[in-house]
Write a structure and sequence with these properties.
The chain has two domains: about 110 residues, Cyclin A, domain 1, CATH 1.10.472; about 40 residues, no CATH class. Strands 1-2 form a two-stranded antiparallel ribbon. The model has no long low-confidence stretch (mean pLDDT about 90). Helix content is about 50%, strand content about 5%. It contains seven helices and two strands. Helix 3 runs antiparallel to helix 4 and helix 3 crosses helix 5. About 35% of the residues are buried. By secondary structure, it is mainly alpha-helical.
Length: about 170
Amino acid sequence: MTKISKSEKVPKQMKAKFDAIVVLTDTFSSEYLNEEYAQLARQAIAALCRKRPSPLMKGRVNTWACGIIYALGYVNFLFDKSQEPYMSATDLCEGFGVGKSTGSAKSKAVRDALGMVQLDPNWYLPSKIDDNPMVWMIMVDGFILDARTMPREVQEIAYRKGLIPYIPKEKEG
């Protein structure tokens, strides 16, 4: 899986659009979600601003803000009642003053532009990274294995190569 830049730098001509969308996503995340969603949204907005041409040039800022949070919600199972935080897609779209079909369509556009998939390590909530199996899958001698079950030496190599986010603690006892 390709690593995505976590930078919030944007071209000068996109700064006003970036700021306008960030105000909406930060406010929404603060009120209904959490800071992790706000941070991931800022990174996604910046990534979309750096696209040539940027898809954000066309459309309303509230629609894009909704689509970005919706896309992150898709990746992180926001619409699953067993997850925390939880929010329905309808409530999310209503929070931005956008119809559900419009929010869903913008979400698809965001996911396509940024190559997002469910459990995507690039767009997964950091607090839940331990539970994301996609983060820990590595290929060793042609076999896909969970790095957490591998010997420490293999984990160290995988970490040095940037294949896993950190070296898991050794099991106690």
